[in-house]
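INPUT
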Amino acid sequence: MREVAVIGIGQTKVDEHWDKSLRELAGEAVFAALADAGRESVSAMYVGNMLSGPANKQQHLGAFIADWVGMRYTESMRIESACSSGSAAFRTGLMAVASGAVDSAVVVGVEKMIDSPGDEVTAALATAADADWEVDQGVSFVALNALIMRRYILEYGWKHADFGAFSVNAHTNGKQNPYARFQEGLTVEGYAKAGMIADPINLMDASPMGDGAAAAVMVPLDSLNKNRNGLITVVGSGSATDSLAVHSRTDPLWLTAAEKSVKMAYAQAGIGPEQIDLFEAHDAFTIMAALSLEACGFAERGRAPQLALDGEITPKGRIPIATRGGLKARGHPVGATGMYQIVEVVQQLRGEAHGSQVENAQYGMAQNIGGSGSNIVTHILKRLN
Amino acid sequence: MEIPRHWRLKQQRYALVGEVCPHCEGKIFPPRDVCPHCSGEAKTPYAFSGRGEVYSYTRISDGPAGFEESAPYTIALVKLEEGPLVTAQLTDLGGQPVDIGMPVEMVTRRIRSDGDERGMIVYGYKFRPVMAAQA
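OUTPUT
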C-alpha cells in the first residue's frame, strides 16, 4: 500500500443555504479543495451523503456531482453509511489511492437538509436506526440517545449538568470558526436553561442540522516533493460495525465499533491515545462525545464527563475535542460531517485553526459515528514536517 | 406504509416470538437466525413471557411522522426476564412515574396508523406496569 497525503481541503459554511442547491454546495467545496491542492482535476471522486433520496429527491450523486464540477467521464460514486457517510467516503478514497487503483481522488461530503419539511427530514434520519424494531415503536434518533444517556447517568452517578462542559467547549471553539453554523458561544447557565427535547437530552445536548459540504484531495505521498512544507499524511484508518439497534448491543453504554475502529487506526499508525494531540469526536449528542472518548482510550469507562469538567477537552487541555465547534456548534449536515472533521484536523495540523489552534499539533484524529453507534470510522492524520 | 413488511412481523408484534439458540441456549429477540452470543445457526422459535423491567426510558413530546397523534408518550428499553432488551412504548401508566428497574409486562396495543394513506392500523407490543395480583 502507498502512503497517502491530503494536499487540499475545502468547505462551505454550515447553514440554512436557501439560495444554494445540493450540487452547488458540493461544487463549492470541491472547487475550494482543488484550488487549495493546486490541481485542476483528479482521477476519481467519492461522494459521502445520507439523505439526498428522501430530502432532495435525487440519488445517483456520483455522476450528478462529477458532471456538475466539470469532471464528466471521471469515475465517481456515492458512499452511504448514515451519519458516517463522509468518513466512509474518505476511507474509500484512501483505499483507492493507497492501493494504486487510482492516481488521485477528491472526496466530498455533502448534505442538503432544509429543502424538505422538518418532520420529513427527522423521519429520513430515523432510517439510520432499525425500521422494524426501533422506528416502528415510535422512537426518534434523539430518543435513542436519551435512552443511552439516562442509563449512563444512573450507572455512573453523574448529573445532567455535568455534560454542559462538552457543549460549552464546542460553542466556545465555534466562535472562532467562520464556517460554523453557530458562532455566538454558550454559557453553563445557557446549557442548563435549554428546552428539553427527550429527557434527559435538551436542545444544548443536541447538534443542529444544516446544509453543507466539505472536501479533500488525496494523492500518493511519493508523487510529492517530501521537503514541501505542511505535508499531511493519513497514517491510520479503521472502520467497524455494530448492530443497528441499540437494544441488540452487548453493552448499550459502550461503543464497541468505535473501540474496534480506533484500535485498527492506532495499530496502523503505530501510536496510542497518548500521542494524539487533538480529536474531532462525533458529538452529535453530549453523551456520544463521552462514549467516544472512553472507547478511544482517553477516559476510563464512565469517566469522560470528568475530562470535560476539568477543562481537558479545550484547545489547551490534554485532549482537545470539537476544536472548530464540533457537530454541536459547527453543525451536523449528516453525510458531510465526516469530511468536515477531516478538513478541521488538516487545519489544525497545518496551524491554520485560527483562534482555537492546538499548539504544535502533530497527530490529529477524527471519528465519525453512523447511527446510534452502528458504523464507526476513525482516521489519524500526521504532520510530516 | 409497507403492508407486507408489517404482516411478516405478526408473530413478533402480537406474541413476542423470538428464537432460542440450539447450541448455547441463548434467547434471541427480535429473531435473527444467527445467534448473537455464539454465532451458531438459531432458527428454533421461542415465545417470550412478556415480563421484564425498565432498563431506560425517555418521554417524547413531539412524535416523529406517523406518531403525532400518540404524543406525548414514553418509550423504553425493556429488559426481558429471559435476557434480551427490546425497544417499546410504555402504556397504561396513569399518573405513575416511571423508574429504571420498574417491573413491566407486554400488552397488545395500537401502535400507529397511516391516516388516510391506505387506512392501515399497526398493532403490536407495548409494556405496562405489572398489575398487583388479583385476589
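end of record. Chain B has a mean pLDDT of 92.
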